[in-house]
Each structure stands twice: as C-alpha cells, then as structure tokens.
Amino acid sequence: MNDAGTPRHPEQSDPRCQSAEPADTGRSGATPIVSGDGTRVLTAGGMPGGQGTPLVPSPVFASTYVLHGEPAGPYQYGRLTNPTWTAWEAALADLEGGPAIAFASGIAAVTAVLATTLRPGDTMLMASDCYYATRRLAEEFLSDFGVVTRWAPTGPEMAAQVAGARLVWIESPSNPGLDVCDIAELARRCRDEGALLAVDNTTATPLGQQPLLLGADFSVASDTKAMTGHSDIVLGHVACRTGELAERIRGWRNSTGAIPGPFETWLAHRSLATLDLRLARQADNARELAAMLAAHPAVRRVRYPWLPSDPAYPLAVRQMRRPGGLVSFELAGAAEAEAFLGALRLVTVATSFGGVHSTAERRARWGGDDVPPGFIRFSCGCEDAADLLADVEQALARLR
Ligand SMILES: Cc1ncc(COP(=O)(O)O)c(C=O)c1O
C-alpha cells in the first residue's frame, strides 16, 4: 500500500469525498507510446514496475487500519477507500476520460447517479427501452420520492423531449434492442436546456465508446458484462465529466456503503488486460453471426449496429470506436425461440452477456422488456466462429 499523500483528518476534510492517489510505481523515464487498445488496457492507470511492487495490483482486504493519533495518508477505513479500488479506478479513469468510482454492481452505479442528481419535483427523461431494472428504479422508487419520469425510445425522438428535464438517461447501444442514440447531439441539447446527460455504456465498454468525450456528464456501466468478461463477478462504475460530479458520486458510495469487494475489484483489473482481445474476437463472431442470421429464412429480424443493413449502422460507425459482441434477432414466436435455444449445444442459455462463453436467451421470458415473444439476445463469446455458426445453424435447422 502506498501510504504517501496529503494527510487528511476526518474532521478537516470530509471523508465522504476522499479520493486516494494511485500507487507510485517508482518507474521513471520517457512516457511510453500508447495508441492501440491492446496497449491502452495494459497501461491504463499507469505503468507497473516500481521496485518491489507487483506487476498486477494485488487485492488488499483490510477494512480496519491502524491509526495512531492524527489520521494521515489516503487509507483510513475500508468503506471509504481501498488501494485495490484506487488502482482499478485509475485504470477506468484513463479509459473513460474522467474520474471514475467503482461500485458493488452496475445497478448500484445507476442508483448513485439517479440519487445524486434528482430531487423531489425534478423531471427525468429516460429511454423507454433501456435495461428493465433501471426503468424499475424510476417507476417503483423515484416516483415515491416525487421525481417524474418522462419516457422516449432510444433514438432521435429523445432530443425533442429534453426541455424541462434535470437528468436524461440513455443506453447506447440499448439492451436488449441494440438501438443507437446520437450522444454528441443529445449532449448539446442537454447543455442548452441545463440538463445532465447520463449514458449507460455497458454494451459498448469504454473501448467501444467514450461518452464523456462525446459530451455526456456520466458514463455508467455494469462491469459484470464485457468489461470483465468472464461471467464470474458483479461490479459497476460511474465515470464523470467533472471532479465535482465525481465527489458527489463518491460521497454517495461512502454514505450508502455500495462498495465493491477488493477481490472482485482485483479480478476486474486482472481481466482488463484482455479486454481488447476479447472484444475483437466477440465482435468478429458477432459480425459473422449477424450476417448469417440476416440471410436465414427462419429469422425475422436481426439487429447488430455494425451490420451495414442495420438502421443504426451509419451512426454506430461514426460514433463508436469499435464493435461489440451482442446480436439480437427474432424468430417466429416463443415456441420457435425455445426450440432453438433448446437445440443449441455449444451456446449456453443464460441471462447476462459479454462473457467469453457465448450465451443466449429469450428476453420475453422475464416480462420486463417490450420485445416480441420470439426475440433472442445473443452474446457472442470467444469460441471459433466456425464452431459457433455451426451450432446456431444446426439449432435453426431443427425449426424447419
Ligand atoms: C445495460 C445495463 N445496465 C445496468 C445493468 C445492471 O448491472 P448489474 O447486473 O451489474 O447490477 C445491466 C445488467 O444486466 C445492464 O444490462
């Protein structure tokens, strides 16, 4: 643990807003050239290599610190700060382009933005097709606190409804419909109207898209998905356009205790090193799968923003840095979709997405999304494309 830093006393500086500095690696010399995503994920948060320090930051589990006399140093109590978070948040901040705060889950990160920006009597404009648990927060909790939510589908219709809103909430590409919203255009509109813009960037990851650089105030993510990509942890984060917004978010985390476990945080940091490789393979698979599905007689409609025939293609190519691994498509009905899923041998039927294993599910089974009964969200993993396509082909063939 790096114990250097500005001495702080809980009564002198509000510990709810305390942020720790990344560990000093002791490395000196010229700054390395970092241009490609493969290098970016390996060097995000700073170069390793200080004498006697681990190459990859280790988990630090302590929750109670020895403090004699005046507390000094950035780490004093485990609910407020932890060196493992510091290293992970420094990496996130580099990739996002703004200060980042890690949370226990994606929905804890979502909640932090909603709770710190909205007050009774405020209006929020939220994408009507965003993640259902986010919508549920607005419908079932915020409404009780006097926040009014206005709804509009992901896309150009949102900009027309910004006036009067305190916060605008979008996902792009949206989950599960994979619609895309012009973030820069919406951010301009929000600035003109005095609204804050939050983008749930879960499906894209910060390698796929940097909402803060497009003008958003918050970039929010469930790091349970492609960001960490092994289907073995639940985690989230918020990145902010300004230090002031970040302090409010950090203060919320300190007050509510929605903190990530050090081990999960370390696993996430460890997984970050392969994000570029995983995304590349997942996107290659998604592109091939989407093209195959689009030509298949049993498939009614395919959505993949990087398929040239997709309505979102021109905007996705202009706005995003690179493609992702999610594809959605529609079969004739619930029975056909269930038969297809049941016939898959390599692909696992599971909820969640973004992992190295391909997974698929019929979203209407949950009842929370406004999708047709035969709608399937397919998350491409890192299998070989030929094997993945062969599995999908044989499962579709059963429908004839
Ligand atoms: C777009 C999106 N945002 C937020 C969440 C919530 O994340 P978590 O499950 O990590 O709490 C999810 C979860 O599926 C999601 O898909």
TrEMBL record:
Q: What keywords are annotated for this sequence in UniProt?
A: Pyridoxal phosphate
Which organism is this entry from? Acidothermus cellulolyticus (strain ATCC 43068 / DSM 8971 / 11B)
The molecule here is called Cys/Met metabolism pyridoxal-phosphate-dependent enzyme
* NCBIfam families from the UniProt entry: PRK07582.1
Q: Name one GO molecular function term.
A: cystathionine gamma-lyase activity
Domain of life of the organism encoding this protein: Bacteria
Per the record, GO CC terms? cytoplasm
Xref: InterPro entries: Cys/Met-Metab_PyrdxlP-dep_enz, PyrdxlP-dep_Trfase, PyrdxlP-dep_Trfase_major, PyrdxlP-dep_Trfase_small
Swiss-Prot/TrEMBL cofactor(s): pyridoxal 5'-phosphate
Similarity annotation: Belongs to the trans-sulfuration enzymes family.
| Sequence ranges of Basic and acidic residues compositional bias | 1-14
Question: Would the keyword Magnesium turn up in this protein's UniProt record?
Answer: no
Which residues in this protein are found as N6-(pyridoxal phosphate)lysine? K225
**One GO BP annotation here?**
cysteine biosynthetic process via cystathionine
- Pfam families xref list: Cys_Met_Meta_PP
Q: Where is this region: Disordered?
A: 1-51
